[in-house]
Amino acid sequence: MMGRWMQQIQKGADAVPTKPTQHSFVSSVGSPSGDFEKKQAANDPLTPQQVGWLASVASLLEVATHHLVEGGFIDRHDLDEQLDAEPSEVARLIRSDPRWY
């Protein structure tokens, strides 16, 4: 029984695949969409808005901006996603982190 299946598999391997006649869903996977905003790369310079927001949060916490970044309290994703967040709310959230003290 196993020999018969193996023969069919080997026969099928000799056949040349045909080109599809219609585009399938798979052909669109990986194509860029205009609906999504391009994210900044981790090593891109900060925008003036990001620098200002980070400085506001650092000022409320009475630390330098690099302390927040190097300590892992704010990362690049936060700078991209939380830019509209109120700095005082972010500072309150950072103070609640057990690593803060």
Characterization of the model:
The protein has helices at 2-14, 48-61, 65-70, 76-81, 87-95. The protein has a domain at 44-101. It is mostly helical and 101 residues long.
Brief characterization of the structure:
The protein is built from five helices and no strands. 9% of the residues are buried.
SSE map:
Blueprint: H1 2-14, H2 48-61, H3 65-70, H4 76-81, H5 87-95
**Ends distance:** 71 Å
How many strand elements? 0
User: What is the mean pLDDT?
Assistant: 76
Number of contiguous helices: 5
Regarding quaternary structure, what we see is: single chain
Estimate the strand proportion: under 5%
Main β-sheet: number of strands, strand sense, barrel status?
none
CA-atom Rg in angstroms: 27 Å
What structural category do the secondary elements indicate? mainly alpha
State the shape.
elongated
SSE order, one letter for each helix or strand? HHHHH
Low-confidence stretches: none
